[in-house]
Write a structure and sequence with these properties.
The protein is of the alpha/beta class and 511 residues long. It contains 22 helices and 18 strands. The protein folds into three domains: 179 residues, Ribosomal Protein S5, domain 2; 238 residues, 3-Layer(aba) Sandwich (Rossmann fold); 72 residues, Helicase, Ruva Protein, domain 3 (Orthogonal Bundle), CATH 1.10.8.
Length: 511
């Protein structure tokens, strides 16, 4: 006798169908699992055997062969327990197999028959819908996550016996689908977000943060401890627009694969990821025998904040160089190549010397060699990929006074400016494969960043005087384009280029 049960698995962000093929035949009693399996999948036979026995449906004393097809792709995880158990029951005619080709099963089995939650339910259910699957039986723990997908029946179960009853009555495709409240599928902002009006002084840094958010530019802050670098960085997500419907699904799939979509709601706000400086290269970029998303992918369409950048290992920082260019992570393993998105806005903060107080020579006693060695922990090629760099100076008592903050822009006001600039970019690039000014390819610069003769001559003079690189030249034009968009100006003017040049001076001094 032969039976096939439908399931699914992940390979990076891509999903593929897995057919759990079961054959129970005469022979020496045993259970064999084949199909290029990881150790956790091989352990499924013991979980399934004991779970079925404790649910009063023991496996017959025959030879049980289970193949997870396609056999040339490595399978990992514990989500195949439930489809394997269902396949065995159908093969020995304990349940009807009439519905199995139209239903997808996912879930880990406990030894008592309980169905436990698994990772990656959202992308697998989305793929099942595309393949014409009519219903998905998933753990109750993942039910809310599965119900984020419209147009497919989702049944959450807590115990193996529930599934048996549904299949015995052939009720899988007849069960009424639960009511879905579309207003409740987004995360929303339930907590009070920190506001830019709380940041005393630092007018230049706040202006730079506004420009960075408007054009999705990478942003670096230099300065002494306690000047407000971290405060500014943590307020940037509050001025970014909400994610589009397509971006919501893309970001939510990454979080689902990582097991972080716990509330069963889509990620509609740009994520903010703030890893500690002790993070490993694998945790930052993604890794493992079956590579999982790292911090770069978790920050997709949001902000990756690296506080105290000079405390990170240089090799760890340099691992970002390629993702910053390609907007994705590609990890090669013997089992295949795994791809994850990594289109994030890098925000960094760092001091200029080991003690942190340079250029205040009254407090800083570091030598020139110590300062140079400290700065060199961040490589030149990485710094060259940062668009905006500003110095955040220590605050005076006047700037700290509450009375002087009344004219400070709020996050709501800055968010409105960013929204308007983003709408301008969306309209401009509607026929291009980019979204933001920071994504402009070099061949697009001439078309979208045209300058008049006077402004072009100014930039040419600065280029020769400062001996700028080609990358720096294009960086200035992209920044000027964003500044012009904030002013709702179709033409890049001389003042826009001058302001853009001011945001690259500190970066050139570092290099």
């Amino acid at each position: 006798m032969f039976c096939k049960v439908m399931s699914g698995a992940l390979r990076g962000l891509e999903c593929y169908a897995v057919s759990v093929e079961v054959d129970v035949s005469a022979g020496l009693p045993c259970m064999e699992l084949v199909g290029f399996l990881s150790s956790e999948v091989r352990e499924a036979k013991e979980r399934v055997r004991v779970a079925m026995q404790n649910c009063d449906v023991p496996i017959p004393t025959k030879r049980v062969t289970i193949n997870l097809s396609p056999a040339n792709v490595r399978k990992a995880g514990s989500s195949f327990d439930l489809p394997i158990a269902i396949g065995i029951l159908a093969d020995i005619r304990k349940i009807e197999a009439i519905w199995l080709e139209k239903v997808l099963f996912l879930g880990e089995l406990g030894l008592d028959g309980s169905v436990k939650g698994v990772k990656g339910v959202l992308p697998i259910v989305l793929d099942a819908k595309k393949r014409g699957i009519k219903a998905c039986v998933i753990p109750k723990e993942n039910e809310k996550e599965g119900r984020l997908v419209q147009g497919i029946r989702i049944l959450g179960v807590e115990h193996f016996t529930e599934v048996i009853q549904l299949l015995k009555m052939s009720k899988i495709l007849e069960m009424p689908d639960a009511f879905r409240d579309n207003k409740q599928i987004f995360t929303g902002k339930n907590q009070v977000e920190p506001d830019f009006s709380d940041v005393a002084g630092q007018i230049v840094a706040k202006r730079a943060a506004l420009i960075a958010a408007a054009g999705f530019h990478h942003f670096l802050m230099l300065g002494v401890p306690g000047a407000g670098k971290t405060m500014i960085a943590k307020r940037i997500p509050g001025i970014l627009p909400k994610l589009s419907a397509e971006e919501c699904l893309e970001v939510s799939k990454v979080y689902s694969i990582s097991g972080l979509l716990t509330e069963g709601k889509l990620m509609d706000n740009p994520p903010f990821v703030n890893p500690h400086h002790s993070i490993t290269m694998q945790a930052l970029t993604g890794g493992g025998n079956v590579p999982m998303p790292g911090a770069l992918s978790l920050a997709h369409k949001g902000v990756l904040f690296l506080d105290e950048m000079t405390e990170f290992k240089r090799a760890t920082l340099d691992s970002m160089r390629q993702p910053l260019e390609e907007k994705r992570i590609q990890i090669a393993r013997n089992s295949g190549t795994y791809k994850y998105p990594a289109d994030f806005m890098l925000v960094g903060a760092m001091n200029l010397c080991p003690c942190g107080y340079f250029p205040d020579l009254g407090k800083c006693h570091c030598t020139a060699y110590e300062r140079k060695r400290y700065i060199n922990r961040v490589s030149g090629p990485l710094l060259d990929r940062i668009d905006i760099c500003v110095s955040v100076e220590a605050l005076s008592i006047g700037e700290l006074a509450v009375r002087d903050r009344k004219n400070s822009p709020t996050s709501a006001e800055m968010a409105q400016l960013v929204k308007c600039a983003r709408e301008v970019q969306k309209e401009r690039y509607k026929r291009e494969d980019i979204q933001y000014n920071s994504h402009l390819m070099n061949q697009m610069i001439k078309k979208y960043c045209a300058l008049d003769k006077q402004t072009e001559q100014l930039l040419e003079d600065v280029f020769k005087k400062r001996k700028l690189s080609a990358r720096a030249y294009y960086r200035i034009l992209k920044l000027a384009r964003t500044i012009a968009d904030l002013d709702l100006s179709g033409q890049i003017k001389e003042e826009h280029v001058i302001e853009a040049l001011n945001y690259t001076t500190a970066l050139e001094e570092l290099q």
